[in-house]
Amino acid sequence: MNEMCKYHPGRKAVVRCYRCNAPLCRECIAYQDGDKYYCKKCFDYILKQEYKREIDEIKRETRRKQLLALLVIIGLLLITLEIYSINKNKAYLQKTYRISPKDLVIKQNIKSLVKYITLGENLVKYKEKYGKYPNKLYELILKYPKIDTIDIITNEGFMYEKKGDGFVLSMPENGSRKEKIRVTRDNRYFENLKNNR
After folding, report:
1. Reported pTM
2. Which helix (H) or strand (E) holds 16?
3. Is the alpha carbon torsion for 59, 60, 62, 66 positive or negative?
4. Closest-CA residue to 126 (of 109, 111, 142)
5. 186 lies in a domain?
6. Is residue 148 included in any domain, yes or no?
7. What is the mean pLDDT of the segment spanning 32-36?
8. Of 9, 101, 147, 191, whose CB has the highest number of CB atoms within 10 Å?
9. Cα separation values, 145 from 63, 140, 142, Å
10. Secondary structure of residue 192 in the 3-state scheme
11. CA-CA distance, 150 to 172, in Å (whole number)?
12. What single string gives the DSSP state of each residue in 37-83?
């Protein structure tokens, strides 16, 4: 280079500042990044900008953490209020509508029987659609996924057995009820049941 240094006019410049393009002698090179050279003024500016960026990032991260903490606190408060509300309503319902153990057993038995009879009806519907009863209950569930085959009292599955052109559907072995539904070829039992509803 034939130019003189911007900061030392009596010295010959060897490079130019990458940022401000000022000619610099070797002594005026404040920082070098590969083939990029910076004067002291520009290097100080870059350092300030980097420092400012870091400070801004720290502030943003702090705000994010504060917001997250606030959301966690609000979530915990809502959960606490929900638990309190549930317990209060439960206590109120128990106090207002007392259900005796005997009534509870009757209610569960009715629900169990409804499930049991509904399952039998769905077995008949399966035959009407596919021309035969399923070999196992899981075949019925594959076609009708919403069907529930579990007894609510024993938490065990209803017992099903295909017999010739009909089937036998029984309550679980461990249950207190011992009902069995036997359906023969003509499905008369369930046809009568559906007509009477």
Report:
1. 0.42
2. strand 15-16
3. positive
4. 142
5. yes
6. yes
7. 90
8. 147
9. 48, 8, 6
10. helix
11. 9
12. EE-HHHHHHHHHHHHHHHHHHHHHHHHHHHHHHHHHHHHHHHHHHHH
Task: Supply angle C-alpha 124, 127, 130, rounded to 5.
Answer: 150
- Among 84-88, 104-108, 117-121, 134-138, name the one with the lowest average pLDDT: 104-108
Amino acid at 135: N
**CA distance linking residue 49 with residue 69, whole number of Å:** 30
The Cα 49–Cα 56 span in angstroms is 10
Cβ–Cβ < 8 Å for 39, 30:
yes
| Residue 19 · residue 36 · CB < 8 Å | no
Q: Is 35 contained in some domain? A: no
Residue 85 identity: S
What is the identity of the amino acid at 178?
K
Give residue 181's pLDDT band: very low, low, confident or very high (50, 70, 90).
low
Q: Which structure tokens are listed for 141?
A: 């569930």
Half-sphere exposure of 24 (CA within 13 A, CB side): 22
Q: How many domains does the chain have?
A: 1
Place of tokens 């504060």: 66
Where do we find the tokens 């559906």? 194
Higher-confidence residue of 83 and 67: namely 67
Alpha helices by DSSP H, listed for 97-136, are 101-130
Residue 45 forms part of a structural domain: no
Lowest mean pLDDT among 26-30, 71-75, 102-106, 189-193: 189-193
- What 3-state class would DSSP assign to 181? strand
- DSSP class of residue 142 equals H
